Amino acid sequence: MKRPILYVAITNHGFGHATRTASVAATIQKLCPEVLLIMVTTAPRWLLECYIEGDFIHRQRAFDLGVVQSDSLNMDKDATLAKLLEIKKQQNSLIASEVNFIRQNRVDLILADIPFLAPLFAKAAGIPCWMMSNFGWDFIYRSWGGEFVAIADWISECYSQCDRLFRLPFHEPLQAFPKITDVGLIGSSPRYSVEEIRSLWGIIAPKDKTVLLTFGGLGLQQIPYENLKNFPDWKFIVFDNSAPDLPNLIKIQDRQYRPVDFMPICGRVVSKPGFSTFAEATLLDAPLVTIPRDDFAEAALLLEGIANYNSHQILTPEEFFQGNWDFLHQPVQPPKQTQPIAKDGNVAIAQAILKYLQFI
Asked: Which of 18, 246, 303, 316 stands the most exposed, by the fewest C-beta atoms within 10 Å?
């Protein structure tokens, strides 16, 4: 019997899609080590290895771009449009090269989060394409209007070829998809105990005075680090190599550690709106502090999600960028919903995929 082969296509935008998809891929691998994972993404291999402990093939390909950004909050719509038009022009050659690879490697199933060309690869190769997300790129681009409306229509048509969508929490309707299965939150779990992290990093500040600042793979150029001097007996943790050297700031530069590993020791996680960070913090009941993003349609859904299901503070940009961070002295808001959110997304998606792979 040949090994079941899963081709995992990941949208080419920041690190969030890569880390959340890798956490699902890792669950598949743990439940069934025989499955060969082909991770198709331009995200660096070291990032994938932080989540997937076993072997996998890394195919460095990009079929979409998300949004061209200079950092986690600033986007370049003109550059984004130009690149999307280029992908549309190259669509047929992109499909041809991937279909050739998929057939040569005897791939059984595509799982995609959420590059819109993936269903077209699958159709041409004669295999199913299953996708997972809380939003589609058509939703993001359509909200920008103008020339992006035609782009959104093209992407919606691509998504309509998808065989099954696992719809994650904090979602838009995802109306282009003909078959939808709702699942719980996905994300990775900490690899270390609270005691291990505190000991390894010499953190003695109490939990309510320990704060994780995390802004994803793109970082944030304008974090007002000077405010940290107002909190001399607190500890702040960042993954930002360009952060200044401050006595109460720990810079995590060892790639074996991930933001999720530090969440259990923190009284607050300060982040831009992003599904992966929001989901992992909610999985761990770590209070979230964030700011709105009016130019990114997904952000409102994410903010509504954490307001409903996690302890939270939603700041104005002025409070974060120009204020003195007095918000850290204010209590967080409790979640609005009394019913907890489902947290079984990794296993639900993994089991559905394994059920399919074992019966083909």
From this structure: 316
